[in-house]
């Protein structure tokens, strides 16, 4: 089956679209990436999405127009990726504007903004969307949803394999080995904390809106990370939580950046960006150390995808902090770093058509596995 996958993550920089072909069994599919297109959001749309995800007050008409603009951007990316309209189905994550994990005080909820019937009509193709809601209804975190897809797409090796996505938020997948006593273990996964979210916001603020991110880690490379601050930040409550756990820009957004800036008055800009960059690597390394201490589990390798994999300073920090495992970019395995999440949602749409479960209780904490997504057909 030919499937389009559309993904816009917490960085809110635009839409990644993939056209992929799937065949074989759901758990071990044969897949081929046919095309990848990244379409940036217009600056005004990106600004509104980021602000909306951090409590910006909008009236009813403004929310409606935002959802229309996001849907149109998804359609534009889809058309650019699938020029001949070959796809039989579309998997679209939508744009997260708020994610509220479950707690003792309230059930979990998450809002991925999209007008799916409109997108189906614009593309004249069925659209599977709203992937998180059934997992949340079953008591799960609703995130991360890509670990089961990671395991199907990348497969197993002789030891535990880690897959790390460095988008706005970092999330980990741990795939059990193909042989040995752990081969029957569950796939694991969780959100670690900020990856690019705080760095991107800092660059935007320091450059007065001229820069959206630290290209090639240039700013971080010119500074020096403040080690004592990183150690203090790692003691914050979220980083002490055991999996399952999920987070987003609601927690690690502009307000959080301002709090961290206030902790370090007078710190040179380059040093602050270097500190945030090293912190993004440190939260991952700490989670892996905690896992090893608790379960004796340490991945042989860490396969890195997402925009952060293009930041050499962040990658260097990961390699230094995750000693004992090979850290490399997913491109080396034939999976473009920018394609990983969009490809995962294409797979989830294919699984939806096959009625194959896409979540796992060991990852999200849901009471059971379930088929993910809601299908919208064109009229």
Walk me through this protein's architecture:
The structure is a single chain. With 379 residues, the protein is an alpha/beta fold. It folds into two domains: 2-142 and 339-376, ATPase, nucleotide binding domain (Nucleotidyltransferase, domain 5), CATH 3.30.420; 147-333, ATPase, nucleotide binding domain (Nucleotidyltransferase, domain 5), CATH 3.30.420. Helix content is 38%, strand content 22%. The chain is built from 14 helices and twelve strands. It has helices at residues 43-52, 60-81, 116-123, 133-137, 147-154, 197-206, 218-221, 227-233, 237-240, 254-263, 269-295, 312-321, 340-354, 361-364; strands at 2-8, 14-24, 29-40, 89-100, 109-113, 127-129, 161-166, 169-175, 188-194, 301-305, 326-329, 374-376. Strands 1, 2, 3, 4, 5, 6 and 12 form a seven-stranded mixed sheet that branches. α2 packs parallel to α3 and α11 (269-295) runs parallel beside α12. The two termini are 22 Å apart. The mean pLDDT is 95.
Please give the structural blueprint.
Elements: E1 2-8, E2 14-24, E3 29-40, H1 43-52, H2 60-81, E4 89-100, E5 109-113, H3 116-123, E6 127-129, H4 133-137, H5 147-154, E7 161-166, E8 169-175, E9 188-194, H6 197-206, H7 218-221, H8 227-233, H9 237-240, H10 254-263, H11 269-295, E10 301-305, H12 312-321, E11 326-329, H13 340-354, H14 361-364, E12 374-376
Parallel strand pairs: 1-4, 4-6, 7-10, 10-11
Antiparallel strand pairs: 1-2, 2-3, 4-5, 6-12, 7-8, 8-9
Helix pairs in contact: 2-3, 6-11, 8-11, 11-12
């Amino acid at each position: 089956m030919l499937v389009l996958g559309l993904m816009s993550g917490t960085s809110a920089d635009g839409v990644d679209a993939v056209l992929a072909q799937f065949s074989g069994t759901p758990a071990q599919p044969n897949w081929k990436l046919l095309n990848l297109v990244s379409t940036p959001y217009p600056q005004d749309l990106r600004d509104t999405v980021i602000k909306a995800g951090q409590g910006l007050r909008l009236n009813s008409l403004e929310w409606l127009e935002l959802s229309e603009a996001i849907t149109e951007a998804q359609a534009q990316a889809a058309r650019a990726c699938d020029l001949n309209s070959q796809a039989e189905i579309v998997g679209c994550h939508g744009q997260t504007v708020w994610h509220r994990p479950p707690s003792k005080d309230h059930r979990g909820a998450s809002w991925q903004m999209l007008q799916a019937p409109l997108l189906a009509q614009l593309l004249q193709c069925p659209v599977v969307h709203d992937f998180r809601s059934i997992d949340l209804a079953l008591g799960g975190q609703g995130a991360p949803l890509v670990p089961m897809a990671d395991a199907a797409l990348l497969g197993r090796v002789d030891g535990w394999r880690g897959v790390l996505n460095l988008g706005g938020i970092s999330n980990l997948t741990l795939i059990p080995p193909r042989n040995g006593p752990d081969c029957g273990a569950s796939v694991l996964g969780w959100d670690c904390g900020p990856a690019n979210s705080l760095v991107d916001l800092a660059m935007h603020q320091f450059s007065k809106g001229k820069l959206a991110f630290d290209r090639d880690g240039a700013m971080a490379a010119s500074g020096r990370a403040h080690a004592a601050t990183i150690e203090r930040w790692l003691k914050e409550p979220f980083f002490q939580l055991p999996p399952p756990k999920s987070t987003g820009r609601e927690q690690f957004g502009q307000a959080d950046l301002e709090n961290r800036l206030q902790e370090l008055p007078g710190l040179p800009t380059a040093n602050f960006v270097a500190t945030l960059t090293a912190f993004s690597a440190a939260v991952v390394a700490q989670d892996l150390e905690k896992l090893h201490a608790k379960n004796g589990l340490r991945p042989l390798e860490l396969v890195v995808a997402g925009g952060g994999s293009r930041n050499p300073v962040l990658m260097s920090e990961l390699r230094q902090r995750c000693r004992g495992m090979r850290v490399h970019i997913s491109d080396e395995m034939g999976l473009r770093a920018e394609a990983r999440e969009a490809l995962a949602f294409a797979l989830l749409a294919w699984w939806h058509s096959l009625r194959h479960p896409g979540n796992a209780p060991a990852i999200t904490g849901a009471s059971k596995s379930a088929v993910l997504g809601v299908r919208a057909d064109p009229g």
